[in-house]
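Page 47, continued from p. 46.
Same chain as before, 395 aa.
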Amino acid sequence: MRLLVVCLLFGAMGVFGAPEADEIKYLPGLPKQPSFKQYSGYFHVTENEHLHYWFVESQKDPANSPVVLWLNGGPGCSSLDGLLTEHGPFLIQNDGNSLNYNPYSWNMIANMLYLESPAGVGFSYSDNKNYTTNDTEVSMNNYLALKEFFRLFPEYRTNEFYLTGESYGGIYIPTLAERVMEDSSINLQGIAVGNGMSSYELNDNSLVYFAYYHGLLGTSLWTDLQTNCCKDGKCNFYNSTDRTCSYNVGQVANIVYRSGLNMYNLYAPCPGGVSTMSEENGQLVIYDLGNNFIEHEFSVSWNQKYRILVYNGDVDMACNFLGDEWFVESLQQQVQVKRRTWLFFNGKSQQVGGFVKEFSNLAFLTVKGSGHMVPTDKPIAAYTMFSRFLTKQPY
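Result:
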């Protein structure tokens, strides 16, 4: 009886629950404090490396809501970008000091864990200040961070768990999932990647087509590209050894990246206006992204129990939808639902959210009119997509 009383007392004191020292009691800039709990602190993943997290509990039944990890890309982009400008419960305003509540926050239906990774990003740091790393090391440290999360928040150990991210998250999420899949103590249900980097070759080749068919390249340049970069019906805009082709691809790079267009959303203005353009020529590359392929991470060995979503804003030029669509098609999964429109309710009427094609355990989905940061550009459509993903509903 005494032992039972002691256990109940310790449980009430939070010894076996969320770390009280990490709880955010007051967050400045809000018109009023939230009704849900939130925590910020560090996961000590190695002796030297400490990864900062911000965890916001679900606004609807946190005990039974899924836990969702979110990773922004870069590499080097803070996941607080996702929290404070994309799908977090509050969004930072233009004055840099105030926050407004987000009616389409993903924590309306999920416990959201935002992790700043790797060390050196945001508030994450390394004691020895050695910030050289690689994808394998990052995936291991992210896995260790998850183990720390479930140690510090044991009440969520049995909840459904999802891995999500965007951009270079196309590398972070699948490589992390490979590790999580082998850990039966984590209730992994699926992964979702938005505007992900899946293959440099596919991304660069597809971007030239994207640019031409969106009216960015003139017919003369397009003719030169076809003449100098294509042979036997196949074009190589990625690593051609033909000097004339390389020059033409450099012209495309100048138009896409240096002419004043917003590479993250073709139809959005360039923040701060257009500065003086560089005349530098060069290969068509994405300067803020890494360099590897992840076909094997999406292989059919990921059996039917995992729900996988690859989604793209269709006017992003950093990781364009066409390259990711080619990537998904290259996996040669069995088609379950042919490409069709998907709909969402915008508060007044049903609208087309984009297009979706569903395979046996994988869906490719576009978000019409959105750029690289889908929840920022199309918050209602993004929330609808996220909700259907978590609840395993058809898109």
